[in-house]
Amino acid sequence: MASNFFTEDEKKIQEKYRKLAEELILPREKEIDEKDRIPPDLIKQLTGDPFYLPSLSVPQKYGGLELSNVKVGIIAEEIGYACPTLIPFLEIAQLYSHVIKLGGSEEQKKKFLGALAQGKIGAYALTDEGPGSDPARMKTIAVKRGTRYYLTGKKRIITYADLADLIAVFASEDPEAGAKGISAFIIEKKGIKGIKFERRIDTFGLRGHRAFDIVLKEVEVPEENRIGKSGEGLKLALKVLNITRISLAWGFIGLARRALEETIKWVKEREVAGKKLKEFSNISFAIAEIATQIDAARLLAYRASSMADRGMEHRKETSMAKWYAGEIMLKAVDLANRVYAGYGADPLYPVEKFLRDAYTWHPAQGTNEVQKFIIARELLK
Length: 381
Fold this sequence. Notes:
50% of the residues lie in helices and 15% in strands. It has helices at residues 8-25, 29-35, 40-47, 69-82, 88-103, 106-117, 233-269, 281-309, 315-340, 351-361, 368-380; strands at residues 122-125, 141-145, 148-159, 166-172, 182-188, 195-200, 211-222, 226-227, 271-272, 275-276.
């Protein structure tokens, strides 16, 4: 697909990670899906040499690669193309690392970003039981006693909570204050008491993806592990999402591109009534539309990434990119399954997996309706 607007440096990143994804991820995609498990040796490659996904955005002075948002997005597209199940190793690392980058002290950055650069895995626990996309109403509470906080509540769909060494957790110090009562904390999992993994979410798509409902009961966190000031946690969380939703959009584009490529390959080979499927205008026109829309989605994602890299306000542009890329991903996988017809339901062919992955994935970090709400609010304020 067209990416002629990339700089030479960006193209090098694209070529490097496309080759890595083709050689190390694509051959194992089916195994991951069938066994619902990511092989430990692949996890090691994703978190360290040669992918280094947790440290892509970590500043060089803390041992990271310090890549731009555009370059992180380009990498996300290649991972999304090869196997969306593995995107969380990039996505969750972005969520966790930006909490520290945007809200942490210098000492916290050295400690917690440095750990990511060494291959440690971070998790991000914002979603609460009940409120979902309305975190201002979260029920998880943080009670301060002396110089320590005690966190109690339930967090839902927390990706890689079991693998994580560190978890960014959001909890309310003052439930009556709503959004202004929420603070951010880092839980260092080693040796910690009070965390219970209630259940692993068993999804029909993104097989191998590990997400858990976790229960916190009087989990002890030292005051120095609070990120930012008391009551500023939700503001921080929203700033983080405004960046990480961009790389998620790039990942959606990757899966959309893969689905379109499989569609094109199929219609060139498959015959119906003595004609190749590509000769039917209703099919060829649909392919033309999807191809154009994927390029448009990539341009929206590139704009949002570039604005973030320049320090510009990009809330509206980020939600536009995330919403549109999600819609086009769903359209692309739907088209692939339509042209494959009955073959699309056969696991011997890849497109049924695309459908499962896309519908499991697209609500991540806020549904399409949430993104439209943000866009409208920015336009109408």
